[in-house]
């Protein structure tokens, strides 16, 4: 077992993911499907990916958790997301909303705000996305944030109060909010921002952790710690972003073992 104090704090959740191998139904960005699937498998969870209105609401009932990521939103996903969320909630499954690149986007922005009313277990996004969920504004530049987690703290608290869940705000120092609990994760590496899909992977890891822990704050904290610590390990071994991606998968398997 790792002697890293941050990892030790969430070790029970990481161990539960590996023991229970939860199935995470991922509606996620097309460009990130590979790293999301591989990252979940490396962490000990199992991915399932389908987004059509004809199949996704049915198949989500056999999963353990649902991720709804709005990156590269397809017509099929747009049609199927709401029904899939309803089916997951009816089945009693936790679900994670990742409102990727909302703000100026005319379709995903109102959809994200509508989905928020369904009470996600965890909302995970960067500071600009979290701000855009509750305030009119331009948001970030695509998936990049123009704000810091501290700037989004009030918005995160408001979202947590609305949903009764947790909010994880990614940034140089990650912020986790749930009820009266607040925490910060001072870990990670900038190389995580140079590989497509690491934010999407964090959403999927959050869903996996929520599947095995009823403590929403701890689920969000565990997933954030898991990815950021794995990122640090990968950065030490990699020679660039390409090799970093490979080492990241290895490190996800290693953290907490």
From TrEMBL:
<feature type="binding site">
    <location>
        <position position="197"/>
    </location>
    <ligand>
        <name>substrate</name>
    </ligand>
</feature>
<comment type="function">
    <text>Catalyzes the phosphorylation of the hydroxyl group of 4-methyl-5-beta-hydroxyethylthiazole (THZ).</text>
</comment>
<dbReference type="InterPro" id="IPR029056">
    <property type="entry name" value="Ribokinase-like"/>
</dbReference>
<dbReference type="InterPro" id="IPR000417">
    <property type="entry name" value="Hyethyz_kinase"/>
</dbReference>
<keyword id="KW-0479">Metal-binding</keyword>
<feature type="binding site">
    <location>
        <position position="124"/>
    </location>
    <ligand>
        <name>ATP</name>
    </ligand>
</feature>
<dbReference type="GO" id="GO:0009229">
    <property type="term" value="P:thiamine diphosphate biosynthetic process"/>
</dbReference>
<dbReference type="GO" id="GO:0004417">
    <property type="term" value="F:hydroxyethylthiazole kinase activity"/>
</dbReference>
<protein>
    <recommendedName>
        <fullName>Hydroxyethylthiazole kinase</fullName>
        <ecNumber>2.7.1.50</ecNumber>
    </recommendedName>
</protein>
<keyword id="KW-0784">Thiamine biosynthesis</keyword>
<keyword id="KW-0808">Transferase</keyword>
<keyword id="KW-0067">ATP-binding</keyword>
<comment type="pathway">
    <text>Cofactor biosynthesis; thiamine diphosphate biosynthesis; 4-methyl-5-(2-phosphoethyl)-thiazole from 5-(2-hydroxyethyl)-4-methylthiazole: step 1/1.</text>
</comment>
<keyword id="KW-0547">Nucleotide-binding</keyword>
<dbReference type="GO" id="GO:0005524">
    <property type="term" value="F:ATP binding"/>
</dbReference>
<dbReference type="Pfam" id="PF02110">
    <property type="entry name" value="HK"/>
</dbReference>
<dbReference type="GO" id="GO:0009228">
    <property type="term" value="P:thiamine biosynthetic process"/>
</dbReference>
<feature type="binding site">
    <location>
        <position position="49"/>
    </location>
    <ligand>
        <name>substrate</name>
    </ligand>
</feature>
<feature type="binding site">
    <location>
        <position position="170"/>
    </location>
    <ligand>
        <name>ATP</name>
    </ligand>
</feature>
<keyword id="KW-0418">Kinase</keyword>
<comment type="similarity">
    <text>Belongs to the Thz kinase family.</text>
</comment>
<keyword id="KW-0460">Magnesium</keyword>
<dbReference type="GO" id="GO:0000287">
    <property type="term" value="F:magnesium ion binding"/>
</dbReference>
